[in-house]
Write a structure and sequence with these properties.
The complex is a heterodimer of chains A (about 250) and B (about 230). Chain A has twelve helices and no strands. Chain A is mainly α and about 250 residues long. In chain A, helix 3 crosses helix 8, helix 4 crosses helix 8 and helix 9 crosses helix 12. The radius of gyration of chain A is 19 Å and the shape is globular. The N terminus of chain A is likely disordered. Chain B is mostly helical and about 230 residues long. In chain B, helix 1 crosses helix 2, helix 4 packs antiparallel against helix 6 and helix 9 runs antiparallel to helix 11. The chains are: A mainly alpha (about 250), B mainly alpha (about 230). At the A-B interface, helix 1, helix 2, helix 4 and helix 6 of A face helix 1, helix 3, helix 5 and helix 9 of B.
Chain lengths: ~250, ~230
């Protein structure tokens, strides 16, 4: 009886899969997605990431594509200060492309976002090239979520000893190496991702980072991420307080 | 005038976003929400957009994506109960094609919506005009429609969901005009004991008598049935 039930559910799901993906055509087929879901892979090969980077971005279409994203990440790309949705504004284009490609082909789990990463919702590889360009040049949140601010000296020391080599002196990251800009990111979002990286739940994390932070205590974690959330990008990257994105007014 | 209205909604949206940004950490349980005065319909509309519901369920709750349900014109008590049950993990669903439980994406953001806000959203959606019928491909023919109607009647569905699934008892869902794939999934998962929240236990004995073909038949019929004007 149980097997009949599971079979019925499986069939129903298979039927759904057919109808859900007919519209835009899958960027990656079901079999590849399921295989990718079993992997822990920082830099997958042969996916959309490499292709998207070679395409010439169309910023006007990027604005069109971003409309879907703006429902959660906000029209300004600032996310929510409580960390539910990260700030995307100002992120390196390569990082946006990598994360979008990873979510859509099963290398990174994100049940809330993945429906919107589907080609049927936002378009194919060109759409990734376009929207990443639009996001990368959005001015950043002048008022992001930060930690308690009570352990910043320890945070600074830990950052200098462990993080600066990849994420840079002010958390600016490294576009060529797909290291994200983490300065002025919401503290709660940093905390969640950091924990998932440490626990292996974020499967597309860089193994060097997993190794680097494996002995961090809870106090270390909170101190260093509080410090990171307070790192400031250069002034020309930050929007004035209260700025509204005119593209969505 | 239209411009003025737009300006006002933009302003309201701004307020909702601002309050979301200063909201306390997500750990706070929904039950800790302050008891606010009943919100006006305009507030429900603003919350529906500002709290990201619109991303999946579409404008006015009538243009949902993938196999997510249309919510426009649904019973307000039912909507509130489902939002709450998903928030609290009482309503669960089977995996989507990618292996994520279908309620997971919503559960992960529902800490953004307090209980009074859920009420305001439910009240707003209940008053919205129901979604347009989404035609099947191939379209349903008269024989199948009649067979679906008969299965719906014989199945005992009518006692709670009303004639044609369009006149439910209070706090029960309207089924007429709902998306076909969503109806199939709900019927299947209620039958199989995956969805157990609310009054589902009452329905399960009826659902257990349905095989997959009957479920498909009833879902085809209901999805192609117009909601009577209220």
């Amino acid at each position: 009886m149980k097997s009949t039930v599971s079979l019925a559910v499986a069939l129903a799901i298979a039927a759904m899969a057919g109808s859900a993906y007919a519209a835009g055509g899958p960027a990656v087929d079901q079999k590849a997605f399921e295989e990718n879901k079993t992997k822990k892979e920082w830099m997958s090969q042969g996916g959309e990431r490499e292709e998207a980077l070679t395409l010439k971005p169309n910023a006007a279409n990027g604005r069109e594509v971003y409309e879907v994203c703006s429902a959660c990440h906000m029209p300004e790309g600032w996310g929510l200060a409580d960390g539910t949705f990260p700030q995307l504004a100002g992120q390196h284009r390569s990082v946006i492309i990598k994360q979008l490609a990873d979510i859509r082909d099963g290398h990174r789990d994100n049940p809330t976002m993945y429906p919107f990463a589907l080609p049927s919702e936002i378009g194919g590889t060109q759409a990734i090239a376009d929207v990443s360009e639009y996001i990368a040049v959005l001015k950043m949140n002048p008022d992001n979520g930060v930690g308690k601010g009570d352990d910043l000296e320890l945070g600074a020391k830990l950052y200098a000893d462990n993080c600066v080599r990849c994420h840079g002196a002010t958390g600016e990251g490294d576009a060529e190496k797909y290291y994200p800009r983490i300065q002025a990111q919401h503290y709660e979002y940093l905390l969640r991702q950091y924990r998932w990286i440490k626990e292996g739940k974020r499967r597309n994390a860089n193994p060097d980072m997993v190794e680097q932070i494996k002995n961090f205590t809870d106090r270390d974690t909170m101190a260093v991420l509080d410090y990171v959330s307070r790192l400031k990008p250069s002034a020309d990257l930050i929007a004035p307080k209260g700025w509204k994105n005119p593209d969505f007014q | 005038m239209i411009r003025l209205t737009l300006g006002v909604s933009a302003l309201l949206l701004g307020v909702a976003v601002a309050s979301a940004q200063t909201a306390p950490a997500p750990a706070a349980p929904a039950t800790a929400a302050p008891a606010a005065a009943p919100a006006a319909n305009a507030e429900g509309k603003t919350l529906f957009a500002g709290k990201t519901c619109i991303a999946c369920h579409g404008r006015g709750g009538a243009r949902s994506i993938l196999n997510y349900p249309d919510l426009a014109g649904q019973d307000a008590k039912y909507l509130f109960a489902q939002m709450t049950d998903i928030t609290e993990g009482k309503r669960v669903a089977g995996p989507d094609p990618r292996g994520y439980p279908r309620t997971q994406g919503m559960k992960d953001i529902m800490h953004l919506v307090t209980a009074p806000e859920r009420q305001a959203i439910a009240d707003y959606l209940a008053k919205e005009p129901p979604a347009k019928i989404r035609p099947l491909d191939p379209p349903i023919d008269d024989a199948r429609r009649a067979a679906g109607k008969e299965a719906f009647l014989k199945g005992g569905c009518v006692s709670c969901h009303g004639q044609e699934g369009a006149k439910p008892l209070s706090s029960y869902p309207f089924l007429a005009g709902q998306k076909r794939d969503y109806l199939v999934l709900q019927l299947t998962e209620i039958r199989d004991g995956i969805r157990q929240n609310g009054r589902v236990a009452t329905m399960r004995p009826f659902a257990k008598k349905l095989d997959d073909a009957k479920i498909a038949l009833i879902a085809d019929y209901l999805s192609q049935t117009e909601r009577a004007p209220k």
